[in-house]
Amino acid sequence: MAEMRVPLLDVKAQYATIREPLLQAVESVLASGQWILGPAVRDLEERLARYLAVPHAVGVASGTDALLVALRALDCGPGTEVICPAYSFFATAGAISNNGARPVFVDIEEATFNLNPNALEQVITPRTRAVMPVHLFGQSADMAPIMDCCGKRGIPVIEDAAQAIGATWRDIPVGGVGDLGCFSFYPSKNLGGAGDGGLITTRRDDLADRVRMLRTHGSRERYKHERVGFNSRLDSVQAAILGVKLAHLDSWTAARASHASAYTQAFADLDGLITPIDAGRGKHVWNQYTLRVRRGSRDGLRSHLSEKGIGSDVYYPIPLHLQECFADLGYRKGSLPVSEAATRESLSIPVYPELTSDQQGYVVETILNWCHDN
Asked: 68: Cβ–Cβ under 8 A, 6 or more apart, which residues?
């Protein structure tokens, strides 16, 4: 097969398919002059609440802000601890630390990259204020034992669903299982904007009220501030863009799932190349298709793909517990071995909806050839 360019993600290809309705939506917002928390935001919040089967969906400025505001809503501040997986994007732990709480890291399941529920009980202390599982790469964490463990102790659960909009645990959309759910609309997400944006979901009226207050400087009434909050309001332009895209999300998710299935079938008989699994806990939305490379060199495969014009990335090269900024927490190499192994072995390859069959065939052929030579 002739060489071709296959990016890890192609936002331009998606834009080309919906260019006119996007431009019309943006023009409508600009003409309205209601650019922050306007009608476009309210409409998106209502539609996402229905889509995610929750009574409350609150737009914020980014996925990171969703975590920050959710943690603040549960008073996860100085003197408290929040448990999260050691293998995730930095914002998971950074938001905990930025609220003044102490991140407590636990290891992941080898098969799914998600928090290992069996590790929870041994790290819970009287200072534990919340547990934050991450639905990594588009697949729900194992929420049954997590909710059971936390429910017995009265510990709230914040779902980091930044990569998992549309995923389910059993038949419940993620973000509506725990006390709060946090989503990101960063352009690389399955529902991505043309910049930053985020969402907080909850079934609890009290938390919804608190989140709405916190996103506007801790104020329900103008110039009257009950708490110190944030300036974290979703822009109307982003909301309008996301509103157009939301209508296509299910079909895009189906395309991702189809691409993932084709990869898994193509790589099924390769020794030393471990394909990601669908654990059968609910709907997997495949924000990433992440291989484990246990033959040759993961970095060698990545270099080979780059030479052939194929995009890939390592999510994530350093586990959270070994990041320099968390050195004072006392973790050492070997503390959380499954997370550490994932950082050495993981490699994500293109799975975006607009990936053509020729492009995917080229990716498969390139990887099979590398495996044959290594």
From this structure: 95, 98, 99, 230, 232
| CATH number where 368 lies | 3.90.1150.10
Shared-domain flag, residues 72 and 207:
yes
Q: 3-state SS of the chain: helix, strand, coil percent to 5?
A: 40, 15, 40
pLDDT for 45-99, tens place per residue? 999 999 999 999 999 999 999 999 999 999 999 999 999 999 999 999 999 999 9
Measure the CA–CA gap between 161 and 136, rounded to whole angstroms: 8
- Cα separations in angstroms, 103 against 17, 81, 83, 337: 42, 6, 6, 18
Judgement on whether residues 123 and 177 belong to the same structural domain of the protein: yes
195 in Cβ contact with 202 (< 8 Å): no
Same domain, yes or no: 122 and 261? no
Q: How many residues does the chain have?
A: 374
- The secondary structure element, H or E, covering residue 33 is none
The bridge status of strand 168-169 relative to strand 172-173 is antiparallel
Residue 226 and residue 273 in one domain: no
Average pLDDT, the chain: 97
Asked if residues 13 and 354 have their Cβ atoms less than 8 Å apart, the reply is yes
Can you give the residue range of the structural domain that contains 363? 248-373
